Amino acid sequence: MSYLNPRWENVAFAAFLILPTVPYPVCAAIVEEPSVSELMALGAPTLAWDKIQKKPQLNQKLQAEEIAQHRLSLYLRWGLDESRNDNGPQRLIPLNETVNNEQEFLTTYTRKNASAYLQVLGDQIVALSAKGDARMAIVRADELEKLTALPAYVSVARGDAFMQLEQPEKAVASYEYALTHALPGEIDPIPTQEMLFYALLDCGRYEQAEKLLSDLEPNTPQWVRLSATADS
């Protein structure tokens, strides 16, 4: 997976090796290989994953689950970036592979009440919705909702899936839920409100859409002007 090659992780690893951690310059002879915990603290889950795969004695099940979950979350971010920045025929390849890797995790680690399992299932819903597999995204969201309260970021993805299926009323409910229940920093409220605006329009709830537009104007005046032009 060359397009998922974690170059920035290699940079972080190199920085760990060359930055002095003692008062005198670090010599190659006294540099120790970073531990799994240190790699995770550096934000390098793929390197931590490679380490526990090469050294089975380090592969404690709970630690492996956590590392695998962080690794998959990183792949999801890369896949989303690729799909947004590339309009070519290969733009969805990273997301497709991410979904497959997430499914492998969900099949392997079957403790459905574990936080790592719930996180990966939520991330898979985001990936499915982003790559246009709306029906499966909704099915997976229903599964997650039976296990735990739906995270706000997953509710946004489910709303996007409903919009793809031209079910704006359900999309409105999903976006409103997300905006109401989001933890600080969990979602970007402006894009979610923008999608809510379009869902309200599709439902014919024009007064609510107009009110939302007026609420958005102080923060996104340019977007509001463009929306008004498009609707006129």
What is the CATH homology-level superfamily?
A: Tetratricopeptide repeat domain
Question: How many domains in all?
Answer: 1
Low-confidence stretches: 1-11, 13-30
Radius of gyration using CA atoms only:
21 Å
CATH architecture: Alpha Horseshoe
Average pLDDT for all residues: 79
Strand elements, count:
0
Largest sheet: none
Number of helices: 12
The proportion of residues in beta strands is under 5%
Q: Per the principal axes of the C-alpha atoms, what is the gross shape?
A: globular
Summing up helix and strand content along with how strands pair, one would put the structural category as mainly alpha
Q: What gap, in angstroms, lies between the N and C termini? A: 46 Å
> How do the helices and strands follow one another from N- to C-terminus?
HHHHHHHHHHHH
Architecture overview:
- This protein has helices at residues 7-18, 36-41, 45-54, 61-85, 93-108, 115-130, 134-147, 152-164, 168-181, 189-203, 206-216, 221-231.
- By secondary structure, the protein is mainly α.
- The protein has one domain (36-52, 62-222): Serine Threonine Protein Phosphatase 5, Tetratricopeptide repeat.
- The longest helix has 25 residues, at 61-85.
- The radius of gyration is 21 Å and the shape is globular.
